[in-house]
Amino acid sequence: MVKMKVELENVKPMEIEGRSFEIITEELGDTPLIPGTELIVKRCIHTSADFDYAKNLCFSENAVQRAIEAIKNGACIVTDTQMAKAGINKKALARYNGEVYCFMSDEDVAEIAKKNGTTRATASMDKAATLEKPLIFAIGNAPTALVRLYELIQEQKLKPELIIGVPVGFVNVVQSKELIMETDTPYIIARGRKGGSNIAACICNALLYMINNKRD
Amino acid sequence: MVKMKVELENVKPMEIEGRSFEIITEELGDTPLIPGTELIVKRCIHTSADFDYAKNLCFSENAVQRAIEAIKNGACIVTDTQMAKAGINKKALARYNGEVYCFMSDEDVAEIAKKNGTTRATASMDKAATLEKPLIFAIGNAPTALVRLYELIQEQKLKPELIIGVPVGFVNVVQSKELIMETDTPYIIARGRKGGSNIAACICNALLYMINNKRD
C-alpha cells in the first residue's frame, strides 16, 4: 500500500457522479435555474467545473421537452467535432434508433469547403441538410456551423428539432449564438464565448439521461 | 444571400485561429506567464474561453522541453477518455512515430475494474503500465487515474515522460493533482477543479504544434 501525502475522500466508483452532483447542488445554493433545465445545467457544471453555465445557458420555450420527444421519436444528432461524437453516449441514443453523425473529416466536405472558401463546418452543415431524418445539431466548436444553420433555416432547407449551440471562442462565437436565438428553432445555447465539444456532448447526454438514467 | 440580424466579423477560415490568439494575447495583457509555456496556456484559453487557465496551469521545471524531446523520440500518449483521444492530432503525433492509446472501453479493463472494485480509469492505468514504450499520460477526466499513476510511480512500476494532469470535477480532483506534483515526474497540471478531456487534448496538440506548426 503506497502512502498518500494528500488525504483522499473515500467515495466508491459508482458513487462519484452522485457525490459530484450533491456538491454542485450545494454550491449552486439559491442560484435561480429554469424549472426542468436543472439536470442539464448541473451536468454542464460537472463537465467543466465552471459555474458560469448556471448563468449563460439559455433555453427556448419547452426546448428540453421538445428535445426529449425528438429523441424518443428517433432523432439523430449531428455534431461539428469528432470529440463531441466520441463523448455522446451512442448506446443510449441507439435505444431510440438514433445515430450520431460528424462529417468534418469527410473528403467530400473538405473538397467542397476548399472550393467554396468556407470552413469545413459550413460544408458539413450542408451535407447534414441532405439527411432525410429528424435532426438535433450539437455544435461545440464552429460558429460558422451555426451561421450556416441559420442560413439553411431561413432558406427553408432545414428544420432542426433542436440546436445545441455551444461553440467556444473569440471570433463570431457570441454573434452566431445570437443569430440562432433569432430563429423559431428550439435551442439550448450557452450565451457568450464559452462552450466546447465537451459541453455539446454533455448536453446530449443530459437529455438522454433525463429519459433513462441507465448508463452503458 | 440571407440577411443577418447580427453583424459578423469578416475573418477567412484560415485566419480564425490566428485572430483568436491575437484577442487572447490582447486580453491577457500583463498577466505573467512562465516563459516557454505561453502557447500552451493560450491554447487552453482558446479551447475553453476561460482565462482561469492563465493562473491555474502549473509546470514542473522544463516540463515543456522534456515533453517535446519525448515526442520527438517517439513517445506515445495514453488518455483516460475516447474524447481526448478523438481530439489529439494523431497525424501530427505519427510524424514522430507516436500513437494515442485509450483503454477505457476495453473489455479486459472493465472486467478487472469490476473484480477489483476500482474505476475503469484505475484499471486502464495498470494496462498502460505494461506498455514497453516511452509514455505521456493525458488525463482529462478521472482523478482515480492520477491516483493510480502516483501509486505506480511510487512502486517504481512506471516512469512517465510527462503527466498532463487536468481531470475536471469535484471528488478528489484537487487532491489527485497535488499528489502528482509531489512526484519527480515532469508534469503539466491545471491546479484546482478545472480541466477536461478537451484541455488534455489541447495541451497535447499545443506541444505538437510547438514542434511543427503544420496542421493536418
Q: Can you describe what's shown?
A:
The structure is a homodimer of 216-residue chains. Chain A is of the alpha/beta class. The first copy, chain A, has eleven helices and six strands. The first copy, chain A, has helices at 16-28, 38-48, 53-56, 63-72, 82-87, 90-94, 107-116, 120-128, 143-154, 173-181, 197-211, and strands at residues 57-59, 76-79, 100-102, 135-139, 162-165, 187-190. Chain A has a six-stranded mixed sheet with strand order 1-6-5-4-2-3, sandwiched between helices. In chain A, helix 10 links the parallel strand 5 and strand 6. In chain A, helix 1 (16-28) packs across helix 2 and helix 4 packs across helix 11. The longest helix of chain A has 15 residues, at 197-211. Chain A is globular, with a radius of gyration of 18 Å. The two termini of chain A are 32 Å apart. The mean pLDDT of chain A is 96. The interface between A and B is large, with 56 and 56 residues.
Could you give the topology of this structure?
Two copies of one chain form a homodimer.
Chain A (H helix, E strand, L loop, with lengths): L15 H13 L9 H11 L4 H4 E3 L3 H10 L3 E4 L2 H6 L2 H5 L5 E3 L4 H10 L3 H9 L6 E5 L3 H12 L7 E4 L7 H9 L5 E4 L6 H15 L5
Parallel strand pairs in A: 2-3, 2-4, 4-5, 5-6
Antiparallel strand pairs in A: 1-6
